[in-house]
Amino acid sequence: MKYILSILIITTFQLQSAAQGCVAVRQMGGINAMYFSNSYSLSKGDIQVGANYRYFHSWRHFVGTEEQPQRQNTGGGIGADGIDHGNAVNIYSHALDLNFSYGLSNRIQLNATLPYVHNERSQVLRQTAPVKDTFRYSVFASGLADVRLSFNYLVFSPDKAHNGNILLGAGIKLNTGSHSETDQAPQANGTKRIATMDQAIQPGDGGIGFTVEVQGFRKFSKSIYGFINGYYLFNPKESNGTFKSKPDSGLAGYNIYACPDQYFVRGGLLAVVGKPQKLSLSLALRWEGIPAYDAFGGQVAYRRPGYVVAIEPGISYSTGNHSLNLFVPYNFVKNRVQSAADIAKQNMENAKIHDPAQQIHVQGDAAFADYSITLGYAYRFVKNKKHSTFNPDTLKHL
Description:
This protein is mainly beta. It has 3 helices and 19 strands. It has a 12-stranded antiparallel barrel. It has a two-stranded antiparallel sheet with strand order 8-9. It has a two-stranded antiparallel sheet with strand order 12-13.
């Protein structure tokens, strides 16, 4: 039973906050790949190391939950094939996390994750000189992202709680990632200038944040388990001091990028299949995003709040001290909610309009990905094989 629970816990309790495009849900150390950093079943003295790779491509634009399909086929100029390919912003994101965990005891784990990102933002420019032209270009931002340090505590002893357990955790998100990366961007007059990259592709958000999480599992039958994860990042700092490259006139304060909170909830079922029990299949529902307002701190700064709801199939395999997994969440709900900056601009414009029937609603758009891909590997160094919950030899006692 201990070995089955070890496989279950390692392969399913994975919190992943992966950026969804213009809504910059950031990949943070230890939250993108709980598969490695929070395995729950680490015995005292055990060490687990791993690597986790994620990819997504965002390109569908939404205002609220309404898609803007015209962004995909108008306004981008005619290509060599004679087709207008649209002016949608495309973001391509690659992220690699290096994860480390140490079993301080059989119920307490210490975790650290060092994330690296490489992001590309492709967009359309309408050039006016020296010749009129419309073309697509890309800018890039890469480097170390925001490192996360955390600890987790199992509420019940893993030696006794075979049918379920609850894990509580807390951590700190450091501001190790750059929030002011620049790149050369072409201008309408045919020149190029160094421009600050959009917050959606910046490696970090510029703030020191604090995380809380709760996770749990419950055995339903011999090989079926249920699980749930919840996580919230509190980012008290109002803004990071980086100005938007294209400020909005009249919006004092909202032309500086925010250090936003973010949240994540995931729950589903897992089935352990085959003999020996090395393979598991899971299906989860997940909801993640950035709120329009932080729980603490100031609110006068620019962000693109929103969320996605996804269905997440996964497959995991463990053999010996090695573990592999693959998760591909598909976003079936995408919602770019109204931001504080939208409301400030709406109030400013409506103050000039005396007829209530003529007043306007302001709500920006954002590009979202249809799906993301997460591929991971972990290896565990077991200090005491006789007492470790990860010892494959315990299979013969099942």
